[in-house]
Design goal:
This protein is an alpha/beta fold and 307 residues long. The protein is 30% helix and 25% strand. The radius of gyration is 22 Å and the shape is elongated. Residues 181-306 form the Riboflavin kinase domain.
Length: 307
């Protein structure tokens, strides 16, 4: 997979692709369905994705809390894992947001990327103030001989699979159900930062990872599997929240205790997959009670991961 972040200067080797349009946050089963449909419809061209960073919602609603299921580099890698050869990650800024629907098609898709065919969901909207819809997209592409495939949303017993539905499941404390929609457990990926060493004093040293632009799921204690930079997977238990017993409560964080592990992880990037929510965040009367609860959480997490 090759990541392109400048749509105005695309090398000739990246042109003439069949392109799926969308944000692809999470690269969930619905996104995979879209990619597979496009691949089967046009197997004669390389598969690509046209997406955006930051997410348009970040520009238009900066007051909203972080909501991303995936950071851009993780998204690009996940798309590559689905057979996407080129990811066109368009910088979505105020200038780009003012492009009309016609400019988006003519300047970006036709002149910039020179795509051979396009696919998207039925609700795809584009151009200034989301003026363009799929009918408009088809009409603008047709004069250039570029076809359009509209792919219906993938539906299960709960309805259409979508990024917003997965976010809601995570915020409500159902990581197992979110994993079914994603096709894999949801992960938070980030570098290990120096903390206050409080976990080490309690007998449970933790790796501290900032949530940054990730969605904050339900606060509490989770069973997790941690993927290290070298590919090893280590089981563990994690807390997501504001540590009401010992912290000032101003910033949520992810703190992970890796079972039977004693290596220096500072500044390394970990991927922490949430397997199950053990309990909600709560305040304890003191450090002794907290320490006992952490031991119980760890035992429960080990039991879950043993099955």
């Amino acid at each position: 997979m090759i990541l392109h972040t400048d749509w105005r200067h695309i090398p000739a080797s990246a042109r003439n692709t069949v392109a799926a349009l969308g944000n692809f946050d999470g690269v969930h089963r619905g996104h995979v369905h879209l990619l597979d449909t496009l691949r089967m419809a046009r197997p004669d061209h390389p598969l690509s994705v046209v997406t955006f960073d930051p997410h348009p919602r970040t520009l238009f609603r900066p007051q909203d809390p972080p909501f991303r299921l995936m950071l851009p580099d993780v998204r690009a890698a996940a798309l590559g894992g689905q057979g996407v050869e080129h990811v066109f990650q368009i910088p979505f800024d105020a200038e780009f947001s003012r492009l009309s629907d016609e400019q988006f098609v003519n300047d970006v898709l036709v002149s910039g990327l020179r795509v051979a065919h396009v696919a998207c969901g039925a609700d795809f909207a584009f151009g200034h103030r989301r003026h363009g819809n799929i009918d408009r997209l088809e009409a603008l592409l047709a004069p250039h001989g570029i076809g359009l495939t509209i792919v219906p949303q993938l539906v299960d017993e709960g309805g259409p699979i979508s990024s917003s539905r997965i976010r809601r499941l995570l915020q409500e404390g159902y990581p197992e159900r979110a994993a079914e929609e994603l096709g894999r457990p949801w992960s938070i990926t980030g570098p290990v930062m120096h903390g206050d060493q409080r976990g080490r004093l309690l007998g449970f040293p933790t790796a501290n990872i900032p949530l940054t632009q990730h969605l904050e799921p339900a606060r509490g204690v989770y069973t997790v599997r941690v993927t290290l930079p070298d590919g090893r997977i280590v089981p563990g238990v994690a807390n997501i929240g504001r540590r009401p017993t010992i912290n000032d409560g101003r910033e949520s964080r992810l703190e992970v205790h890796l079972f039977d592990f004693n290596e220096d992880l500072y500044d390394q990037t970990l991927s922490v997959a949430l397997i199950a929510l053990l309990r909600e965040e709560k305040r304890f009367s003191g450090l002794d009670e907290l320490k006992a609860q952490i031991a119980a959480d760890a035992a429960q997490a080990r039991a879950i991961l043993a099955h």
